[in-house]
Write a structure and sequence with these properties.
This is Sugar transferase. By secondary structure, the protein is mostly helical. It has 8 helices and 4 strands; from the N terminus they run H-H-E-E-H-H-E-H-E-H-H-H. It has a two-stranded antiparallel sheet. The longest helix is centred in the first third of the chain and has 24 residues.
Length: 203
């Protein structure tokens, strides 16, 4: 019990340090991206996506806006391959994963961790099977084993039946990957996963 509490405390300290240092170091980059988005079409810089967090609570996931204003009202919550709602600048931000940087704010707020299952859209959480719902016992993260394995997920979502393909084929595999990782995780494996994620951003 004591070791578990120490492990939990250590993870929170790493989250706070990592998010704080990250925001400090990336402040110039964040400012440049924010200005570019604002001047590209005059729309808002940030987008808050509704996601399901730990224990099923809902929260707003911060992202740099990569789609046209009011995109949520013009299509599904998951972006498909060739989605016309994505702006030219947004495509570059998504490819480099820079659109995810504002989620460091979610980490500081305690809604997310640096490492944890990627938070899902409520409409897809509704499809979780009882065994899959156990993933909600963990604090969602900016990166995870599944998000690294499926970092090119958008390219897999094409065709008229893309949503069924996601719900019945891709999502179950992602949940299984993250559940397997979370049951075996350690501070060391989390640090390795973060390094691997940063390295993957260059590819």
């Amino acid at each position: 019990m004591i070791l578990r509490r120490l492990d939990k405390l250590m993870r929170r300290i790493i989250d706070l340090l990592g998010a704080g240092v990250g925001l400090f170091l990336f402040t110039p980059l964040l400012a440049v991206v924010a200005i570019a988005i604002r001047f590209s079409d005059g729309g808002p810089v940030l987008y808050r996506a509704k996601r399901v967090g730990r224990y099923g609570t809902h929260f707003g996931l911060y992202k740099f806006r990569t789609m046209v204003p009011n995109a949520a009202q013009r299509g599904p919550g998951i972006t498909t391959n060739g989605d016309a709602r994505i702006t030219p600048l947004g495509r570059w931000l998504r490819r480099t994963k820079l659109d995810e940087l504002p989620q460091l704010l979610n980490v500081l707020r305690g809604e997310m961790s640096l490492v944890g299952p990627r938070p899902e859209d409520p409409r897809y959480v509704a499809h979780y099977q009882p065994t899959q719902s156990s993933i909600l016992a963990y604090r969602p993260g900016i990166t995870s084993a599944a998000s690294l394995a499926y970092r090119h997920e958008e390219q897999m979502l094409a065709g008229a039946d893309w949503e069924q393909h996601y719900v019945h084929e891709i999502m179950p595999v992602k949940i299984a990957l993250d559940l397997d990782y979370m049951t075996k995780r350690s501070v060391v494996t989390d640090c390795i996963l973060i390094v691997r994620t940063i390295a993957a951003m260059r590819k």
